[in-house]
Amino acid sequence: MQNKKHNVNKVANREALIGVGLVIFNFVWWYGFAYGLGSKDPEEYKYIVGLPDWFFYSCVIGLIVMIVLVIVVIKVFFVEIPFDDEEGEEK
Amino acid sequence: MVNWVAIIPLAIFLIIIFLIGIYASKFVQSSQSFMDEYFLGGRSFGGFVLAMTMAATYGSASSFIGGPGTAYTQGLGWVLLAMSQVVTGYFVLMILGKKFAIVTRKYKTLTLVDFLKVRYNSSVVVILSAISIIVFLFSAMSAQWIGGARLIESLTGISYTAALFIFAVSVLIYVTIGGFRAVALTDVVQGTVMLFGTLILLIATIKAGGGISNIIQDLHAENPNLISPFGAEGTLTPTYVSSFWILVGVGVVALPQIAVRAMSYKDSKSMHRAIIIGTIVVGFIMLNMHLIGVFARPILPGIEIGDKVMPLIALETMPAWLAGVVLAAPMAAIMSTVNALLILVSSTIIKDVYINYIRPDAPHQTIKRMSIGVTAILGVIVFIMALDPPDLIIWLNLFAFGGLEAAFIWPVVLGLYWRNGNKYGAIASIITGVGLYSLSDLLPTLLPKYSDVFQSFFNPFGMHAVVMPVVASFFVYVIVSLSTKKKIPTELKPNF
After folding, report:
1. From the candidates A22, A26, A54, which should be mutated to test the interface with B, based on the most B CB atoms within 10 A?
2. What is the DSSP string of B118-130?
3. What mean pLDDT is predicted for residues B48-63?
4. Structural domain boundaries of chain A?
5. Chain A: nearest CA to B298, how far in angstroms?
6. Residues B19 and B338 sit within 8 Å (Cβ to Cβ)
7. Does position A89 have pLDDT exceeding 60, yes or no?
8. pLDDT value of position B64
9. Which residue of A has its CA nearest to B218?
10. What residues does each domain of chain B span?
11. B224 and A42: CB-CB below 8 Å?
């Protein structure tokens, strides 16, 4: 019992840290492309499918990258655990 | 003039919502544990329902930062800002995560306040949080109610009062009879309408504007800043835009109406699916909705009132019946916020105040009658307030989200993951968060002479006013918890 609880906590803590990691990555990607490419004079922007390059990479590709990352992270690192560890107490 | 072609799709939408309410009420009638069912849908939701109810509830949080109307004025910089909300799709469920699910099941908690009560064992924490929730969310609800009525008014041509009446009655009926299950299931319909509605409208707008390239070149010709990340006047600084990652991104984890959803799912598998679906749905709704606002500008220049951008562009670019269908989307967004808030405020009053302090031994039948009664009465009060909204409500609404985030983020997150956090830390953190956040607006208004001083104190580096209180309440929570560590005996510390 104790051992099981320990494991559950470990899983939960690790998954929360993964969440924090994803947010940091997401922020860096979003900020880096938006202000890295977007701080130039608008006359010098390049365009991809009609959108300014900073916006295309930061917001459009950024969204797709995050969706793919989230799927990979869930499939690879997230563990399925039962929630009701004390059976018999439930009505 | 009454616009019938737009009314019919809206009416069909409302009828579907009603039917869902009636369906959900069957569960309420037959449930063994009334409160668990009425306020939390019996913790039975699968991944898809969970993702949609979360997305629909976030989706509307963005309406308070102005949404497409502001994007219309500011250009792509505002879409960039809005994209900070993608985080909510995965972050909330990952952070509260399985620990929250296990703890809230073990102690059979039904609300965020319930969780805080179990964690901190303090009636001061319970009362402070119940008051913040009732005051802030009540105001947020009235404001959304007003928005819903204005939308019906502008779309259909019927009067504000009649529109408000239709809106209020429809929301009230399904929430009152169906409880949380009705709210979540209607959120599925509303989320789906929002996703496809914004997608169709975006495509129609791009077509009407002659393609993306064309639209962007028109914007560039009008004002090059519209296609830069800095906003039309160059006022959106990187620090200001980044600080929205707290207000509408990671801070959302502390909003009670969102946190309560993180207790409502069936098993780990539902949670995993919900994270994936939620990220996709939130991401696309945000991107589509705000791009519509920007792209509408060259097609319909000179719109003065931001809220009208969506209805006008829809009527401009598509046949009236399809516009009616698409415009059910913003209405869905408003309804899904209102219903979430209504059931949450009602659960706070019943579970956190009435059962905790007034009648702990209340019999099942009384609780049932009280819950349904309180939900209905709240709705009626909000309706009356929305008829002629007092200024205080408007002001409180602006503060609702930031205020609740500043109050709850650390007591919830650190309460889950840090064993040494205690009630003194939580109380100090709630007071600091809400206090500083309210002062950040009150002081400059009361003492305009010193507004520069306040500005540099409350908005360092031009950040949004939510950042400073959140940071300050973190340190307060940690420092107070550590310095009162000895007052809490080890056996009272959480063992989860």
Report:
1. A26
2. HHH--HHHHHHHH
3. 79
4. 2-77
5. 15
6. no
7. no
8. 47
9. A50
10. 4-389
11. yes
Find the residue in A nearest to B270 (Cα): A80
Which residues of B are less than 8 Å from A32 in CB distance? Answer: none
CATH code matching the domain that covers B4-389, chosen among 1.10.10.10, 3.40.50.1220, 1.20.1730.10, 1.10.10.60: 1.20.1730.10
CB B300 within 8 Å of CB B209: no
- pLDDT tens digits for range A23-41: 999 999 999 999 999 999 9
Could you give the percent of chain B with pLDDT greater than 90? 37
Mean pLDDT of chain B: 87
Indicate if the pLDDT at residue B393 is higher than 80. no
ipTM value, please give it. 0.90
A84 at interface of B, judged by CB pairs closer than 8 A: yes
Q: Give the residue from B31, B34, B86 with the most A CB atoms within 10 Å of its CB, the best one to mutate.
A: B86
Name the least confident of B55-69, B145-159, B184-198.
B55-69
pLDDT tens-digit series, residues B205-229: 999 999 999 999 999 999 999 999 9
Name all contacts of B44-48 with Cβ < 8 Å and 24+ positions apart: B44/B264, B44/B266, B45/B184, B45/B264, B45/B265, B45/B266, B45/B270, B46/B265, B46/B266, B46/B270, B46/B273, B47/B265, B47/B269, B47/B270, B47/B271, B47/B272, B47/B273, B47/B274, B47/B276, B47/B277, B48/B188, B48/B273, B48/B274, B48/B277
> Chain A contacts of B250, Cβ < 8 Å?
23
CA distance A1 to chain B (A): 13
